[in-house]
Design a protein that fits this description.
Shape: globular
Low-confidence stretches: 174-198, 264-293, 333-349
Number of strands: 2
Helix content: over 70%
Number of helices: 20
Strand content: under 5%
Mean pLDDT: 78
Length: 438
């Protein structure tokens, strides 16, 4: 039996059970979801140019394939955030994953341009829920370790971008190389039938497979104990923490679990006579969690300045990061050994596209290391300012035509710094929110 006179908060419980096998499994699942998100984003570098060549689209029609994805992500970011806070983290990323997986797979069978646009927009709405995986994972991590594990979690995004670039490169370069050893009649058959009709479709279909794995493993995932505590379901939160403690071979603190907000209020109203205050406060807190009016807290006098500054920070990061990804596909020039079969390359876009995207995707590895090295030594704000400046300097020469080597080098360096800045921003934002709110 637990001693009811002793209480502990969720953060105290997480610190006691420490980061162990349980959090490792949570990291693996959330990381898989984050990897699939990165893969779907990286597809934007390949699908537009390839579909433009196959279907004879104009430049504006090609751009629309990318635009509808980001428009969907804008809708999904709000939608899945609301679902996450109202119905739980699990239901949120389940719905987001079902939508992005289903629409992503069906995109491979798009009969025409309009259907492709609709399906890619639905994929974008699903991708808008990717941030729920981050939230869900971090809510299992003890607060002293969240910065470190956020950087480790970000490596799954890097893994996804590299894997998607490798998958696309394999689809063109490895296939073309192997075709050299096949009889001429078979080459012509593949050139005339298989690749024109199925090249980009296979890429879309294969890229959706990791999302199916996320769905298959969904039944094994626990709900976030922080969400459960916020909803007053401390008994369920305790059960989750108890399972975590057993798997980590540790024990929970003695006593009973209480919400952090109730614990804070208990410090102010410690007498038994104030029990009704605690009860009413708990009910008020639970009601406000599901009320849309709670969104206006972001625009309160205390938080409005921070809200707009963080919005601008994420806008700058997103604009720069995805801009570099799309810029890579536009600046690829087309001089690669894979060009030995002209007809095949004509139907699948410039081979240099796959090489350049793969090389620039590798830039996220040193970016990850750089962010881990600089974030605690220099500080969040200064490190972001420095890396933004270096990214700007590297992108500046690309306003005029450059040699292919210089172009790829500039894109590599810019992506390294911008990806590092994005990681630091993901650490900085929740820390600022907690500090200002307290």
């Amino acid at each position: 039996m637990r001693d009811q006179s002793l209480v502990y908060t969720l953060d105290e419980a997480l610190s006691t059970i420490r980061f162990g096998k349980f959090q490792g499994l949570v990291l693996a699942y959330a990381g898989l979801g984050w990897t699939t998100e990165a893969m779907e984003v990286m597809i934007l570098s390949f699908v537009g140019p390839t579909v433009q060549s196959v279907w004879g689209l104009s430049s504006s029609e090609e751009s629309m394939i990318t635009t509808v994805v980001f428009a969907g992500m804008l809708i999904g970011a709000f939608l899945w955030g609301f679902v996450s806070d109202t119905y739980g983290r699990k239901k949120s990323f389940l719905g987001a994953t079902i939508l992005s997986t289903g629409a992503g797979f069906l995109s491979a069978f798009s009969p025409n341009y309009i259907v492709l646009l609709i399906l890619r927009c639905l994929v974008g709405i699903g991708l808008g829920g990717g941030h729920v995986f981050t939230t869900w994972f971090l809510e299992f991590v003890p607060s002293p370790n969240r910065g470190t594990w956020m950087i480790i979690f970000s490596s799954f995004w890097t893994l996804g971008t590299i894997f998607e670039a490798s998958l696309a490169w394999f689809a063109i370069c490895i296939l073309v190389t192997s075709l050299k050893m096949i009889r001429l009649v078979l080459i012509r058959l593949i050139e005339a039938i298989v690749m024109p009709g199925l090249g980009w479709r296979w890429l879309l279909a294969l890229s959706s497979l990791p999302s199916f794995v996320v769905l298959l493993l969904y039944g094994c995932t626990p709900e976030s104990p922080r969400y459960l505590c916020a909803k007053g379901r401390t008994s369920e939160a305790h059960d989750v923490l108890e399972k975590a403690a057993r798997l980590n071979q540790t024990e929970l603190p003695p006593g009973r679990l209480v919400s952090d907000s109730i614990m804070d209020l208990n410090d102010d109203f410690a007498s038994p006579a104030s029990t009704h205050l605690l009860s009413s406060f708990r009910k008020k807190t639970q009601d406000s969690e599901t009320s849309p009016s709670s969104l206006f807290i972001l625009f309160s006098p205390k938080l409005i300045r921070t809200t707009f500054l963080l919005w601008f920070l994420y806008f700058a990061n997103t604009f720069s990061y995805y801009g570099i990804i799309l810029l890579t596909s536009q600046l690829s020039s087309g001089h690669n050994e894979c060009t030995s079969i002209p007809m095949l390359l004509k139907n699948n876009g410039d081979a240099d596209l796959y090489v350049d995207v793969f090389i620039t995707s590798l830039a996220e590895i040193p970016g990850l290391v750089l962010s881990a090295f600089i974030v605690d030594r220099v500080g969040r704000k200064l490190s972001m300012a420095i890396m933004f400046a270096f990214g700007f300097v590297l992108l500046l020469p690309l306003v005029i035509h450059q040699q292919e080597t210089l172009t790829t080098t500039s894109l590599f360096g810019a992506r390294m710094f911008v990806s590092a800045t994005f990681i630091v921003a993901c650490i900085y934002a929740p820390e600022v929110h907690v500090f200002i709110s307290s």
